[in-house]
């Protein structure tokens, strides 16, 4: 019998992360949820292990990733936070993955990060730039995060959703880059569908070392 794969989820208590946990368990994975505050996670399951730790502590992150097959990162911070959670956290994740010989990394960032601004028209770009200025620290943190991932030499995939909703899971969305999947400011995807797409990337190698959009 094939041994079940073990994955680690960072950002598991977030609004998208909770769906990543649920759908990972539904797919039969053994799941480690690495969280700062376990009281924020009410989900219980025989294949779910909740590990308390600090994303800024590289040794704790290393311990969480030890023995895993893939890492899913849905890190984020509340608007206005100055903490470099995404960049420093991702750096610690990458270092821990290399130490443990784990190669598969799937990360959620978003529209407006780095070169994605070139994929929308000038009006949308101006609006998005103004919006990002309201939380420039978080935007800069995401930029650094993507640079770290792209330079990591891991088998990474960055998923770039547009605006996120709390809608139901439809399993009807597009994943890709270029003209076939072109974002606008009205592009949407539900957190549940984004989570499904993220979990699928564990075994789907279509977008290795690529950063596709995910949207309806």
UniProtKB/TrEMBL annotation:
Gene3D superfamilies: NAD(P)-binding Rossmann-like Domain
Signal sequence coordinates: none
Domain of life: Bacteria
Coiled coil: none
Single GO MF annotation: biliverdin reductase [NAD(P)H] activity
Membrane-crossing segments per the record: none
Segments forming domain NAD(P)-binding: 11-204
Pfam families named among the record's database cross-references: NAD_binding_10
Protein name (record): Putative NADH-flavin reductase
Organism name: Marininema halotolerans
